[in-house]
Structure formats: C-alpha cells, structure tokens
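Hello Y.,

Per our agreement to keep a running log of every chain we model this quarter, I'm adding this entry. I've kept the format consistent with earlier entries: sequence first, then predicted structure.
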Amino acid sequence: MIKANKYVDRNPELIGRFKVMTLCTQLELHSSENNRTPSERYLKILLTSKLVIMATAAMITLSGCGSDGEPSRDVKASSEDALPSLKALDTSWTNTMVWIPGGSYLRGSESGQGDEKPVREIKISGFWVDATEVTNDQFNEFVLETGYVTVAERRPDSSQFPGVDPSLLKAGGIVFIPPGEPVSLRNHYAWWTYVAGANWRHPTGPDSDIQGKGNYPVVQMAWEDAVAYAQWAGKRLPSEAEWEYAARGGVAGNEYVWGNEVTPNDQWHANVWQGDFPNQNTVADGHYLMAPVRQYPPNSHGLYDMAGNVWEWCLDWYMPDYYAKSPSQNPPGPNQSYDPNEPGMPKK
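Predicted structure for the entry above:
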C-alpha cells in the first residue's frame, strides 16, 4: 500500500490542473465492449487510441530518410516543431533507436471512442524512434548535465490557481492510489490523487524513490519536461500519427500487434491491469503498476512497451475531430488544443 496519506490532497482543482504530472500506470481503459475481459478491452483501446493526456514517459523520435527510403547518413529532426539540439549527436544513438520505414496504415478505430473516428489511410515518412521509453538513468544523465528542474518539482504559481488556498500549492504530482472501496468508474478522482513531493525521483510521493530502478521508465513527466529532454538529446517527440504507425508494428487485421489472443501460449506481451480495477490487481503479468523496459517481447519493428506499462507523450495538441480533418500524409497534429468537455484546459 502506498504510504502517501499524509501528503495527499484530493482537491479536484489541483488534480484537474496537474494532469500533466500524473504517474501513469497499467490502468484499464473502460469501454462499452461488454464481450471483452478488462485486459482485452484495455489492450484493444490502447493500441488504437490517442495517448495525449497525462502521459509520463517519452518515446523520442529522429526523422530523416534518403531518396531510396533508407536512413540518411546525416539524420536531422525534420519537424518544424523540432527544437535545436543542446547536445551534439554521436554514433551511440543508433544503439538505442530503431528505423521505422515509411509506409501507410489505417489510423483510428470505428469501434473506439468518438475521437478515434473516422478510420483513414495515413501515409508516414520513415523515421528513427527510441526502442524503449526514456529510463530513469537516461533522464538522470540529462538532469546532471543541465541542472533541469521538472514541472513536478516546482512550486505552483498561485496566479494560475485563483481561488485555491495558497497553502495547498506545493510541488508534487498526481499518483494512482487504490480507493479501497467500490467506486464509480466514471469518477477518476477516486483513484488519482495529488501528492505533495511526488516527482520523477519520488514517483508515488516522498516515501518512494527510484533506487535500483534505473531501467524503469521515468515518470511524473510534464510535456515540457519531455520536450526539454528531447531537445537536449538532439531529437523530438513523435507526432501522434508517427507513434501509432510505429506502435502497430506494420501489422494489420489482428486484434493485437502480436496476434488475436491476449496471452498466446500463456505468455503476457504487455504490462496491464489484471483484476478488479481500481482496487485489485492480480499481477498476473509479473509487475504491479510499472515494469522495467524490455520485459516483454517487442513488436515487429523492435519497439518495446508500445502497449501497456506507462503512457507516452506525443508532440501533438489534442482536438477531438482531428482524425477527420488531418492531412493524409505526415499529419503534424493540430496547431492548438480544444476539448469541448474541458474547454479551458489545453491538452497534449
């Protein structure tokens, strides 16, 4: 049980404003597909959904290709949103990245949420992408070299929180804490809790740490933290379209990228919630909440944890109708955010 009660604040205003600092774990995404087990529903939605809110780990992209479709020798970030590098590239990056050849795929899901429709063919140019989530060790190297302080480590600016008691404005983040009793699955405040002192060094609060977890995904990352790391590394975040293309692994028609069964040959292929969400996790896949990187088989591109484990940041702003309006080739994402359900909150 997480020892966080003395640091907890369940003020909905704080939880709502600090979504970007959430510790995201293997939570079930609930759908209306009544014929599926919780794990099956989670996996299907995750493989066809936009992971744009409350994501915590960055998959980093480097774009570039030659005229023959193969990786160019002089690879540069090719998005107008890419930031200038603060760290000179060296050959070591090729050991941690995978080349994703250009091609096309059907983006979206007619059986998914409204913002996943319509299904459209999208063409993507080739790009390099990290094989795993950014780890604690990798992010620590960035912090040691630059002195960077993450959003979760900064005290909130009271001017951005009118009406909130200033004494409640403490540096921290959102943490998953099982409520311990039956709750409505529509009330995410029941299990997401603002915890003072939660940050990438202390993912679930001051009583936690990352000792011995250098190969775990770094979490409690705001979008600007992910962008800062990518800039330092000489890379950028992937667009949502690139991310989904890479996540699918070149596979079409299967229920999941590894086939049509959740656990073929009784083997788990992703770290997800098993049991009665949000209170009981049977840990059938071997890991509670998070798993180290490379614990499960990669997809056909050689990428790990593109389903399950932690949610991952993309470059795009969020617009619920963007699938219908986006360009069909290399969609860069909307140039602004608007969610009619929360019109005052820009989202990535």
